[in-house]
Amino acid sequence: MFASILDGIFNGLSIGSILLLAALGLAIVFGLMGVINMAHGELMMLGAYTTVVVQNAFKGIGGPLFELYIFFALIAAFLVAALVGLALERGVIRYLYGRPLETLLATWGVSLILQQFVRSVSWVMVFGLILFSLLFFGGQWLLKRRADFESVQKWIVAALLPLSIGISLAASTFLGQTYKLAVTKPWFGAQNQDVTAPSWLRGGIPIGNFQLPSTRLFIMILTIGCVVGVYWFLNCTKWGLRIRAVTQNRNMSACLGIPTRKVDAITFAIGSGLAGVAGCGLSLLGSVGPNTGQNYIVNTFMVVVVGGVGKLIGTVVGAMAIGIADYVIGTGILGNLTNNPALKEVFAFFATTSMAKVMVFALIILFLQFRPAGLFPQKGRTVDA
């Protein structure tokens, strides 16, 4: 009995750590900025695919370096997801602040684009995207030197956009026809990709009659490190204090000279980078596919809402509570703790993955009836800002 309870607590905490790792970036973007980013799961997916690429590169090198590839993958996943998030903020989100419905629809569209991108990306597509960016954005940068740029900007964009698209498509088509399969074959395709953990992450630590998997322990340590890092950044750095100031009162912060647009970009990039780190950690638990992020986006939103929007401690408690509840209900451990036949039948009915999620959803709905602002609601001026 004691062993099963201990096993349930550990596995629940490990699931909670995975949810917390996935929800950390969303807690910053949704909690601090009020942006409903439906593409957060796809940023996690990009982090997972970055891990696949780094792993394959280190496989080619071989030797002891392969045992350390996961640390390089974590850095690369953070940078790739942060850069994509920065581009998303600069190109889409910055025009939609204060309009949550439009933000939700726009980021949902971006999520679909990113899913199809990883299915179809090839050397031809990358070449075309780079050429388009150079022509379109580079052309605007050069023409900004004109004194009358502001008055003719719409006409410049209207001329540059079709011209850049046409040249990029023509050059990509020529490249594909010249080099055939070598550059047109997709890098990943629709099939899932496998990530091989380093040898020191295989196996586990035996305790009594069960074993603590090394991979899950590593994810728990990684999650603790990320939480400590985010707390330190928000409370002990100059930009962290600026982020908190803009969160509480944007207009006053702007009057005091804080560059609010730059703060928005940095905040979104950090939240996106944390999603990439989450994707790297999740890739150690199973195969990576275009729909990897969709499996976690709903749960991560639940964690942020239950914990309290904008509260880091609430995100931690919410993730652990949902993770433990999901595992304990889904494995039927509660049925072993009672001798009542009726209760045993009820717990056995919900002792599946899908039914456990239904029960967790129901419990969250019930909880929000009494605590609609979450476990740790915002207080004071933050609520009015």
Molecular structure report:
The protein is mainly alpha-helical. The protein has two domains: 2-112 and 199-375, no CATH class; 122-185, no CATH class. The protein is 74% helix and 2% strand. The chain starts with a helix and ends with a helix. The model is unreliable at 380-385 (pLDDT under 50).
List the helices and strands and how they pair.
Elements: H1 2-33, H2 40-61, H3 69-91, H4 100-120, H5 123-143, H6 149-179, H7 181-184, E1 204-207, E2 210-213, H8 214-236, H9 238-248, H10 250-255, H11 260-282, H12 294-307, H13 312-331, H14 333-336, H15 341-349, H16 353-370, H17 381-384
Antiparallel strand pairs: 1-2
Helix pairs in contact: 1-8, 1-11, 1-12, 1-13, 2-3, 2-4, 2-11, 3-11, 5-6, 8-9, 9-11, 12-13, 13-16
Helix content percent band: over 70%
Tally the structural domains: 2
Tell me the distance between the termini. Answer: 50 Å
- In DSSP terms (H or I, runs of 4 or more residues), the helix count works out at 17
Strand content: under 5%
Elements, N to C (H/E):
HHHHHHHEEHHHHHHHHHH
Strand line-up across the major sheet:
1-2
* Strand runs, count: 2
- Mass-distribution shape: globular
Radius of gyration from the CA trace?
A: 23 Å
The largest sheet is: 2 strands, antiparallel
Q: Which segments are poorly predicted (pLDDT under 50) over 5 or more consecutive residues? A: 380-385
The overall average pLDDT, rounded, is 81
Structural class: mainly alpha
Short note summarizing the structure:
The chain has 385 residues and is an all-alpha fold. It has helices spanning 2-33, 40-61, 69-91, 100-120, 123-143, 149-179, 181-184, 214-236, 238-248, 250-255, 260-282, 294-307, 312-331, 333-336, 341-349, 353-370, 381-384; strands at 204-207, 210-213.
